[in-house]
Amino acid sequence: MTALVAVLHAGLAAAWVGGMAYSLLVIQPKLAKFYAKDPETRETLTVVIASGNRWKVVGLIGVIAASGAVLLLLDTDHWWIHAVKAVLLAAATGIFWYVSWRHWPHRVFATSAEVPAYQARLRLLATIMLALTGTAFALGVVATHI
Fold first, then answer.
1. Which DSSP string do the residues of the chain spell out, in sequence order?
2. Using one digit for the tens of pLDDT, what is the confidence trace for 106-129?
């Protein structure tokens, strides 16, 4: 049972971290380069790519949190690592909430002059989310070796 929950937990966490890293470090720079002379098309494509993912990520976060809680119940020896990971997940979730329900609605209706500032803010927020979730993932790996 523990191994199954651990694989589910780590697999979903890896998918989230990997998806964010791929978007931030591969997709977004390529879009910027390819559409350098056509920022409106770039923004339209970015919105299309992001569309419909909000509730998938909410579900992903929920399962990661629930499976983490189950893992804590199954093994309380290193509870402090679970607590730190929970704080990191909560912080990343807060940023995700802000991006999904505040940043994106404003960005979708932004003027062409405002879009670059929204893009820069999203890069910063995505980088912070990636650092938070990556750190939580690394702590999970460390926890298996202590």
1. -HHHHHHHHHHHHHHHHHHHHHIIIIIHHHHHHHTTT-HHHHHHHHHHHHTT-HHHHHHHHHHHHHHHHHHHHH--TTHHHHHHHHHHHHHHHHHHHHIIIIIHHHHHT--TTTHHHHHHHHHHHHHHHHHHHHHHHHHHHHHTT-
2. 998 999 899 999 999 999 999 999
